[in-house]
Specification:
Layout lengths: L3 E6 L6 H6 L2 E4 L2 E4 L2 E4 L6 H8 L7 E3 L3 H13 L4 E6 L7 H15 L4 E6 L4 H16 L4 H11 L3 E6 L4 H5 L17 E7 L2 E8 L2 H16 L3 E8 L3 H12 L3 E9 L2 H7 L4 E7 L4
Helix pairs in contact: 3-4, 5-6, 8-9
Length: about 290
């Protein structure tokens, strides 16, 4: 059993089978839907939520877990005998999760002064955050120290990238997560925007006139970034599995991919992307 516990948020969108096999612990985001307060992937699941979103007249809002939520998770791990924890979170420029977890770490010192916790801002979201969590968990299961697990995650920050597209940026705009992609809002109708992240903020990286063109651009961008190297890729979507399979075919004809899987965004992320979003999160393997 690993001596280092790995904890993250539900927005990492890691498939349930991987969470279980890699012993990854999660804390759920909140979704406020009218008077309802839902817990991401606890009291609301993906399919049900996306089905509701297609008929919704107003968008719900989301909130990150608070310090008390993280404190509860840390205490639970400490009670289970964990003396070292790495807590991995989405960009602090788009969510308060990193700050809340940092506060909870300080609170832990009163109850469990011997438990060491490293809190990491991934400067990214979705399965980019997820890849860092996955590799941290694998390193922990191999018996790596907390320092080495943390170093692995921090080294991946500059190597991990997101590209996604949707029929509209409306959801990102209404949710206040549009970042530097605001300039794409005033474009022509039927433009398929491509967005990514840079320094923890959403940025525009391209535009196309059809999903097919957008997917081709994705493949070309990944191919240029990876070059003759290798990559691991998570194909991410919100109710668009068929679309990411199209992306996978294009990308893997150009790029040497050593590991890949498809994953559906959690409801708390789907609030901001909207149904039909498709894209990928990849990281470039370092050459030995």
């Amino acid at each position: 059993m690993s001596q280092v516990a790995v904890l993250t948020d539900s927005c990492a969108s890691i498939p349930e089978g991987m969470l279980e096999s890699l012993q990854i612990h999660t804390v759920a985001y909140y979704i406020h839907r009218g008077a309802e307060i839902l817990r991401d992937l606890v009291t609301i699941q993906r399919e049900e939520f996306l089905r509701w979103m297609t008929t919704a007249r107003s968008l719900p809002t989301t909130a990150c877990p608070g310090p008390g939520d993280y404190l509860e998770a840390y205490c639970s791990l400490a009670k289970a005998g964990k003396q070292e924890i790495i807590s991995i979170h989405m960009t602090s420029k788009g969510s308060g999760a990193f700050q809340a977890a940092t506060v909870a770490r300080a609170m832990m010192k009163d109850e469990y002064p011997d438990v060491r916790i490293e809190v990491v801002d991934t400067q990214n979201v979705s399965l980019c955050q997820g890849w860092m969590v996955i590799e941290a968990a694998r390193a922990a299961l191999e018996g790596r120290s907390l320092d080495r697990v943390t170093a692995t995650v921090k080294r991946m920050i500059l190597l991990t990238h997101m590209i996604q597209t949707a029929d509209t940026l409306r959801y990102l705009y209404l949710g206040g997560r549009i970042g530097k992609a605001q300039q794409l809002l005033g474009g022509m109708l039927n433009i398929k925007p491509l967005i990514g992240m840079e320094d923890g903020v959403i940025v525009p990286i391209g535009r196309a006139y059809s999903r097919g063109q957008a997917y081709q651009q994705m493949a070309e961008l990944v191919s240029e970034a990876v070059g003759q190297g290798q990559a691991k890729i998570a194909y991410v979507h919100a109710g668009a599995l068929r679309e990411v399979e199209r992306i996978r075919t294009l990308v893997e004809s150009k790029v040497q991919v050593v590991e890949s899987f498809a994953a559906e965004l959690s409801p708390a992320l789907a609030v901001h992307t909207g149904p039909g979003t498709a894209g990928l999160c990849y990281y470039i393997l370092e050459r030995c």
